[in-house]
Write a structure and sequence with these properties.
mainly alpha
């Protein structure tokens, strides 16, 4: 993945965790600063509830 984790942190800073995959994607789209690559990667996350932005980042780094 080409996106820097700090960029992901910034995108996810307003997400209220725990959050489900669809909530995270919706919040990221609403940020307006969404990179297509990041949005695509968020779409590939397992469909589950995430406890924190760090958990999302770790999952994205596995991709």
């Amino acid at each position: 993945m080409e996106t820097v984790p700090m960029d992901i942190q910034n995108m996810l800073q307003n997400v209220k965790f725990p959050a489900k995959k669809n909530d995270i994607i919706q919040q990221a789209r609403g940020s307006g600063a969404m990179a297509d690559q990041l949005l695509e990667n968020l779409g590939m996350l397992p469909d589950k509830e995430y406890a924190s932005a760090d958990e999302v980042i770790k999952e994205l780094q596995r991709r």
